[in-house]
Amino acid sequence: MRLFRTLSRTPLRAPLRATCFAACGLLCVLSANSVKAEVSSVEKSEKLFNSQVKQFISKFCLDCHTGKDAEAGLALEKFTTRTSILEQREEWEKIVKRIQIQSMPPKDAGELPSDQEREDVLAWFDDALYGVDCSGDVNPGRVTIRRLNRNEYNNTIRDLIGVDFSPAENFPSDDVGYGFDNIGDVLSLPPLLMEKYLDAAEQISEKAIFANTPESYPWKKISDKQLKKEGAVTIRRSGAGFHSRGTLKGTVNLKQDGEYEIRIIAGQTPAGDEAAKMEVKLDGKPLKTFEVKADRNSPEKYTLPKAIKLPKGKHDLEISFLNDFYDPKGPPKKRDRNLYVNEVAVRGPKGKLPDDVPASHHKLITCTPEKGRSERYCAERIFKPFMEQAFRRPVSRNEMKPIVDLVTATVESGRTFEQGVQVGMQAVLVSPHFLFRIEGLQDSEDESNKIQNVAQYELASRLSYFLWSSMPDERLFSLAGQGRLDDPRTLRMEVKRMLADPKSEAFVKNFAGQWLNLRNLEDLSPDPRKFRVFNTQLKADMRRETEEFFAYIMREDRSVVDFINADYTFMNENLAKFYGNDKVKGEKFQKVNLDKSRRAGLITQASILTLTSNPERTSPVKRGKWIMENILGTPPPTPPPNVPELEESAEGKQNMTLREQLALHRKMPGCAACHDQMDPLGLGFENFDAIGRWRTKEGKHKIDASGKLPDGRTFESPVQLIGILEQQKDGFCRSLTEKMLTYAIGRGTEYYDKCAIDEITANFTAKGYRFSELVTEIVLSDPFLKRQKGSRK
Question: By percentage, how much of the chain surpasses pLDDT 70?
Fold first, then answer.
């Protein structure tokens, strides 16, 4: 929620509480005084509403906004008290935004409020809508139960099971709220997604655990390079052809003792009255002679009926063609009997794990039912740690029992123990306790206490999904189990550790990718006739530059002001050539210093400039809007209805420059208030074309990147404008705080979060604007560490 006048307030909770506990009598006095002060504040607000605000609405708003024909369907005559305003808080936030930017009443209205009248009304709304007493307990909010989004699901499966598999790539796209896809309110569970979860659980369990069934053992082929021949045999990549009597020899190297199976895929060309006879020997001893009746074009599998018990080591396998036959006078297709062997393969040993069993199998199957250990005993040993990791908290025996029962029932039905574990794993992976981050299970039953500290294991999940988009690691689990995780010193250490961990790459991809709209690059396609150099690789490199830039500021703990004015960036050879730099070589991205005569910070990176352009040309409006939203933290309101796009309003003005077209657009009713702020910001970066290349002319027109902001400040170039934006760094820091807090807690910020946002911003800016301090202050804030019981308010 954006506040129109930011008033930083010093937190008074700690000294207040100390005083209260020291003197019970003083507590009563303070409480009484607090109630009196609150009543007095409300009474004062009511009086101001009646003496100023009500008259303002009547004088400047009701002419257009009354009755069923009210403009934009907004009837305001019903708002006659302060309470009626607060009951429609969200509606009035939009209205106040328009009053602030002076689009209500519009400049072409008959009578306009004076600056003082507007300021007085805005001050009243600021206090009424957003005023919160930060000296007492403040509502920390409550997050809606949150489903794992696609990135979180993939990362959690990776860390929980250890399989190189991303099943969520096939899931439906996640909805976005407040700019992010990890917001609890929008992460629904449609039936199609539930089906995808079931399919994914089955695939994951089969990839992670070797089923230990006869069919699950892989056949290991003997390659053509391992084969030798005797007689009329031709060896090819696709197998071997026996054109007369001959023998095919190969060596089988077994690494374990045990029972093995041998399979040969073969076919024949028929002739005479017999089928081709294929003899199989091992270590010189005949095993079986097969009659190969299958046609060479439709070969069949010939497997020895029983597994052979063999010691480890090398064994000689021989395949011979016994009954060659040729009749030149026979039917055309039955004159020459030949044998064709397409594949020779061995599998086993039965009952023993293959050498190439996945590492996840050994990680998960920590107990097997042998030497007196029952299936139930081993299932409990396996699923207690697995379920605790999957559910991200301790589990009881009652929670484990249905899973253990499922494993034992599967084994009793005739399947292997490993198959039972697969089925149990599937049940865990579709459990709500895995798919959702559920908080409040450990809340106290004391209904008088509506504010709870987030439980230790829940806090571990908040931390890990904030910075890693994945489940907590062993250290976070351990600290939670010891009850130490909520200690401020511990949290500070954990934030630094987690930001330095490679898994923090997920924070770059998911937070920065959405905050800066980098994900939208994938869907952009600039006009190929105008921008022939733009291709898929360049697009990927543009995005990578911004991600590397963000990651550097994060890992090197730089000032977040670098996002605005950094004199460095990251390039590989391909991107450097695009920028006109011939000194960078190789595909690897490397840090490059900028002279700041043309480029500095995020705004002049090609990814951002491309995102804020149209397919065929630049868009000063989009660029100005992006700066207002992401740098200044003052997003413009939604355009009024029935306002034409720039192209429509400038029809027939093709000879005009874009600057001239925008000036014409601003003359239209309802446009000037927003465009007076957006247009100069966007025009200041007109030296960059629609894909971010530097230019001094557009067609025959010389680029004019100068401008004047509504507050009177002027600039002549992009870098000068960046210097002006740098002066607004406190507004940027507050905006970044609000965005990151939203991402961290998984809900949109509300008016009661003002105190926390003020405190986080003040604390981290006072410590040098360091990135880690911003993250740490968010983690130490009430919205992150606490939660409100019951339904959200």
Answer: 88
